[in-house]
Amino acid sequence: MNDNHKKICLVTGANSGVGKEISIGLAESGAHVIMVCRDFNKGQAALEEIKKVSGSQTIDLLIADLSSQESIQILSKQIYATYPRLDVLINNAGAVLYKKTLSSEGIEMTLATNYLGPLRLTLALQRLLEKSVPSRIINISSDIHKWAKLDLADLQYERRKYQFMKAYAQSKLLLNIITFDLANKFKDRGITVNAVHPGAVKTALGSDNAHSNILKLIDKLIKFFFLTPQKAAKPILDLALSPKLHDVTGKYFVKGKAVQPSLASCDLMLAERVRTVTKRWVIIS
Ligand SMILES: NC(=O)c1ccc[n+]([C@@H]2O[C@H](COP(=O)([O-])OP(=O)(O)OC[C@H]3O[C@@H](n4cnc5c(N)ncnc54)[C@H](OP(=O)(O)O)[C@@H]3O)[C@@H](O)[C@H]2O)c1
């Protein structure tokens, strides 16, 4: 039995793309995998596939909409009631929304899913992660964060015109900022927190936005040159499992290497302001 047999690892957005491949890799390593998906049917189909491909039976499916605080609360109650520990939390679920949409709680959906969701889930599971040290948190970000123009007074695009890639870039910059902020907070507590850009990956991300046949064709042509989800998942699996990376924290990884994210990502004064603004939606101590 290798070291990973005892690990319990949670992956959000585990039914497709990068999240599904991470789940397969974790299951193959012998870890107990908790898949968190928002759609039961899609989650169930992925669960069956992952069991078949990996040969593992220790894979569970939990359903949650990560854009909803209420759903995250129910999810975390289920997790505390079922699992004695959590070794790895991979906040992978993410969305690109062509049209401005509001979550069930009235929050702009990109912000709610890509930023508030991972933050709320991480804070909800903090006690379990602390109980399981050394534990790891991995936030799936994007290099697109470098394009973000942050307006802390208008994070929901109420005054600015909504542009989907700008909203997406903003959400990933906020995710980076909070990643490094939490890494500082957890530094001496045995929990590492890192962000990863998985590369440009051939997945369903943003495909719903291709409404006409021409856009669908362009989407397919562009993605022809992208990484496969399997290839993109490999360095994320290393970050989750490799003993060599057990104490690496507060870093931004691309292709398995720690690289410099945007300066805004690491701006401590900006992080303080982001924390203050975020308290409108999330209790941060
Ligand atoms: N693909 C790329 O080129 C690329 C580049 C940089 C970063 N990323 C990041 O990589 C991560 C994985 O994306 P992917 O490329 O693998 O795309 P994907 O195949 O579309 O996977 C996204 C996953 O997130 C789930 N999800 C979306 N909104 C959710 C919500 N409110 N609650 C729960 N789950 C939700 C989706 O569920 P459904 O299937 O139900 O929609 C899906 O399982 C994302 O964070 C993305 O931003 C991707």
Report on the architecture of this protein.
With 285 residues, this protein is an alpha/beta fold. It has a single domain, classed as Rossmann fold, CATH 3.40.50.720. Helix content is 42%, strand content 14%. It contains nine helices and eight strands. An eight-stranded mixed beta sheet has the order 3-2-1-4-5-6-7-8, with helices on both faces. The structure holds NADP nicotinamide-adenine-dinucleotide phosphate (NAP). The site of NADP nicotinamide-adenine-dinucleotide phosphate has 28 residues, from α1.
Topology, pairings included?
Layout: E1 8-12, H1 17-28, E2 32-37, H2 40-54, E3 59-63, H3 69-82, E4 88-91, H4 109-124, H5 126-131, E5 135-140, H6 164-185, E6 191-197, H7 213-224, H8 229-241, E7 252-254, E8 257-259, H9 268-278
Parallel strand pairs: 1-2, 1-4, 2-3, 4-5, 5-6, 6-7
Antiparallel strand pairs: 7-8
Domains, number: 1
* β-strand number: 8
CATH class: Alpha Beta
Order of strands, main sheet, comes to 3-2-1-4-5-6-7-8
Gist of the model:
It contains nine helices and eight strands. It has 285 residues and is an alpha/beta fold.
Q: What labels would you give this structure?
A:
8-stranded mixed beta sheet; Rossmann fold; alpha/beta; globular; 8 strands; binds NADP nicotinamide-adenine-dinucleotide phosphate
